Amino acid sequence: MIKLLFLFCLPLLLFLKCKCLIDIEWKGKNIQFMIVVKIAGISVKRYMIPIELAPEPEYKINSKPKKLTKSDLQKMKLKLVQIREKVVRLNSWLKKTSKGFTIESLHVTAGVGTNRPDLSAWLNGGIGMVQALIVQQLSIYIRLAAPPRLMIRPVFSQSPMTVVCHCIISVTIAHLIKAGVMLLMRRMVNHKRTESGLIGTSN
Length: 203
Hints:
This protein is of the alpha+beta class. It is built from 5 helices and 9 strands.
């Protein structure tokens, strides 16, 4: 009975939506990330990540202090290279996977100020152009469910760069499973190619 109930509910579970709520607040040298992951409207994970920009940025994940060093960046680069070597056509997989994600809401407000009104106007105009370019590039890979709200709030006095961003990204559980299976298959194909190459070399 339980097995039958599970099989009946499985299609419904696959099409449940997973949502990621991202809030970013950037002021001067300080950036605050808040990420909430929800499945079927229920919060399952929450991250608070404050970052202080510096040559070796300091950050915290849920109050646990960490520091991003050059060694960490090198390790991340090496890890990415290893992933690219293990997966066949990784870029193609990333593009196809991103198509299954939807940006349901995107609100961005930014501004900067200097003691010169003319320079402030130029800088804020440049920020507006950067915002538009970022959204244009995002729309190539991820579907936008609604037009983004981009705002510029110029400050005509000395003020650090400020950015406030609120974003909601959604994806179905079925798409995540499909992407995982496709990634595993690509890795297996690459493994077989490597093995056949080694056999050919030994012969």
